[in-house]
Each structure stands twice: as structure tokens, then as C-alpha cells.
Design brief:
Blueprint (H helix, E strand, L loop, with lengths): L1 H9 L4 E6 L4 H7 L7 E5 L6 E4 L4 H7 L3 E4 L5 H4 L6 H13 L3 E4 L4 H8 L4 E4 L2 H7 L3 H26 L2 E3 L2 E4 L2 E2 L2 H14 L2 E2 L4 E4 L20 E5 L2 E2 L8 E5 L6 H20 L6 H14 L14 E3 L6 E5 L11 E4 L2 E4 L3 E4 L2 E5 L4 E3 L10
Parallel strand pairs: 1-5, 3-4, 5-6
Antiparallel strand pairs: 1-2, 2-3, 7-8, 8-9, 10-13, 11-12, 12-14, 15-16, 17-20, 18-19, 20-21
Length: about 375
């Protein structure tokens, strides 16, 4: 929490305050508490953070959170509401009494709540401090993400085994006499995740022409002899941490252009991973991928490699650091993806995504699932 203390002191403020539910990754990170409705976290320099919760949540919060837990009653809210009936303003008064002066809040603060706070005292807006703190993972966070990754690979294996076991009839895939669809594979994936306490939304199982669109979710019958992109990024219901991985496969042999694209993407994946280490800039790793694709004859002109090479993963599936043209410094403890891809309308798309840990002198790839195009 030293970073928060430095932030508060840099503004000559008295405390850092966040008001959110645990759906906000900064709140989950700072408190370790999982809660549906918004609660208040307040941190003064040199003091332990305070988590202010409804009375009914106090016992559970004390068990789950690493902060000092007090109830809204203990924080004086009931007394304040004898005079101030508007709940938002009453919260602001309560925070002002505890903080004792100006506060720093995240840029995601609800505007109505922020305005109520402004009525009480000076307000400073911070954008990236907690996001930057979250980028370097602790051993506990690393273990949590690795656990989700194992579940993700099992779900990927279930999906690919299902496609591998299908038969080709005409232009499409069939299994047990039924046409195999994107929706059927997603259901298999989600059932596998659910059994291990994870959930996923926006899972990608796209085939054929849809693979030329990086984030096309995919729907309907899956084609034979064409690329199928499977992108799974589930979240643990228990810890809140994500994993992320992508594989591209084809049931039956696709056209030579797809095979050449696949081989190139696989090579770029391996070469860029080999370059990653602490102290590098994310922008340099991304540029290396661009250069490798260019050397292989896949220049970038609104098609080809048209997205960032990777991103951080944690309490959000996309968080710092960015592995892009604007990517900053990579540090030991960053959990990142490396996901090169090529996309050509009328031909199709290829993407391969691994996730792992940035170390002092290498990238520790956690994704052990094989890369195999033709099933």
C-alpha cells in the first residue's frame, strides 16, 4: 500500500477513497472482499485501510478482507442521516469526517458520488495508480491465475476433442448424426468451466469466413477444411481472477494459404515469447511481431496482424501492461498474453494465444496445450 500513501501525499491530501462493489477490480484488489453492492474503502498514509460495510456484511468482510472492517453505523452514518436524508450526501459527509480533509479518488468514481464529495472538500482524481499496482502479481495472485489456466486448458481440450471426433459430410462437421455448431462447442466449454468453479462470457468459437474478424463470437454450423478459432477467457468465481488462451484448428486439411498463415503465426508466437523479459518495453515486443510478419510477407494494411500482440491478465481479462505500440515497461511479476494473429477477409484468420509470467530474464509460458492445426 505504499504506492497509495505516496499518491495521497503527492496531492497533499488526507486519504484515498474508492466506492464500488467487487465488480470493480481495483476494489477487489485493495480489499480482497467480494460483494455485490458498493462499499467504501478508505486509506490514510501510514495507516491500515478501512473497509466500511453494511452491518449485515461485517462478519463476512472481516473474514475475507485484509482491511480493517467497520460498519456504517460505527462510521457514524446513522447519526449523519438524522440531518441529511440523501444517502449519497450522507456517505460523503461520513467520508469527510473520517478522512479529515481532501481525498484522492479513482477516475471510475460514480459522478454523483464524486460531486457529493466535492461539496465537502477538495477532490483529486487518479487514473492509473491502482491499475499499475495490480500489474505486478504476488505469489498468491500467480497461483490463482495458474489454477484458472489449468481449468481453461481442460475446457479447450474438451472442445477440440469434440471437433476431432466429428465427421465431415459435405462442407460441414457432424457428430452422432447431428450437425456440429458453434453453440454446441461453447456449451461443452462452459459446462467444463462450470464444473471447476469458473464462468465465461463472450467465448469465441468461430469458423470459416468469420475467423477473419478477430472478435467474431461465431454461430451456426462449423465448416470442414477451414479454420476454427476457439478463444476462452474464464473467471474464477472464488478468486475473481481470469485466464486467457486461444487455439486455431481445422477438421480436415484447409487450403495452403491457411496452413502458411498458421505456420507463420506459430513462429511469431515462439520468437516473440523468446524475446520477453523484465525491462523490455511492450512496444518493442509488439514491434518485433510486426517486423517478423513483414519479413514473412504479411504486411499490415487494414488486414493481416491488426491487433495488439498481448495484454496483462488478472482481475480483468485485459489489464496492464499492454503489449502494443503504446506498451510500457515490462516488469518481473507481470502476467501477460502473447497472441499474434493474421486475418484476411475471404481467406480466414489464425490466432494463437499463450499466457505466462514475465521473469527477470525470460517469459515463463504457462500454456502447455499443444498447437496443432489439422485434426
Amino acid at each position: 500500500m505504499d504506492r497509495l500513501d505516496e499518491l495521497v501525499r503527492s496531492h497533499d491530501a488526507c486519504a484515498y477513497v474508492i466506492y464500488a462493489s467487487s465488480a470493480d477490480p481495483d476494489m477487489r484488489y485493495l480489499t480482497g472482499f467480494s460483494v455485490t453492492d458498493p462499499v467504501i474503502f478508505l486509506k490514510k498514509p501510514g495507516e491500515h485501510g478501512i473497509l466500511i460495510v453494511p452491518d449485515m456484511e461485517a462478519q463476512r468482510a472481516s473474514h475475507e478482507s485484509n482491511a480493517t472492517v467497520i460498519t456504517r453505523t460505527q462510521a457514524g452514518l446513522q447519526d449523519i442521516m438524522k440531518e441529511e436524508k440523501d444517502l449519497t450526501r450522507a456517505y460523503a459527509l461520513m467520508i469527510h469526517q473520517i478522512a479529515g480533509g481532501p481525498i484522492v479518488v479513482p477516475s471510475t468514481m460514480q459522478i454523483g458520488f464524486a460531486r457529493a464529495l466535492e461539496e465537502q472538500d477538495l477532490l483529486f482524481i487518479d487514473t492509473n495508480t491502482v491499475r499499475t499496482m495490480r500489474a505486478r502479481k504476488t505469489a498468491t495472485e500467480v497461483a490463482a491465475i495458474q489454477e484458472v489456466q489449468k481449468v481453461t486448458e481442460e475446457a479447450m481440450d474438451r472442445a477440440i476433442r469434440c471437433i476431432r471426433g466429428s465427421v465431415i459430410q459435405g462442407d460441414y462437421l457432424y457428430r452422432d448424426g447431428t450437425q456440429l455448431t458453434s453453440e454446441m462447442i461453447k456449451q461443452e466449454i462452459h459446462m467444463s468451466l462450470f464444473r471447476h468453479g469458473c464462468s465465461a462470457s463472450d467465448t469465441i468459437v468461430s469458423g470459416g469466413d468469420d475467423t477473419a474478424l478477430p472478435h467474431a463470437a461465431g454461430f451456426g454450423p462449423l465448416p470442414a477444411n477451414k479454420p476454427i478459432i476457439i478463444d476462452i477467457f474464464p473467471r474464477s468465481e472464488k478468486t475473481g481472477y481470469y485466464a486467457d488462451m486461444t487455439r486455431t484448428i481445422s477438421k480436415g486439411r484447409p487450403e495452403p494459404a491457411i496452413i502458411e498463415m498458421y505456420d507463420t503465426v506459430r513462429d511469431v508466437s515462439e520468437d516473440t515469447q523468446a524475446a520477453v523479459r523484465s525491462g523490455m518495453m511492450g512496444s518493442d515486443v509488439h514491434q518485433k511481431a510486426l517486423d517478423l510478419f513483414e519479413d514473412a510477407g504479411y504486411g499490415h494494411n487494414k488486414e493481416g496482424f491488426i491487433h495488439s500482440l498481448g495484454h496483462g491478465v488478472g482481475l480483468q481479462v485485459h489489464e496492464l501492461p499492454n503489449i502494443s505500440l503504446s506498451g510500457g515497461l515490462l516488469e518481473t511479476g507481470n502476467v501477460i498474453t502473447i497472441e499474434p494473429g493474421l486475418y484476411y477477409p475471404g481467406v480466414g484468420g489464425i490466432r494463437l494465444e499463450d499466457m505466462g509470467l514475465v521473469q527477470d530474464d525470460h517469459f515463463e509460458n504457462w500454456t502447455q496445450y499443444h498447437k496443432e492445426l489439422v485434426l
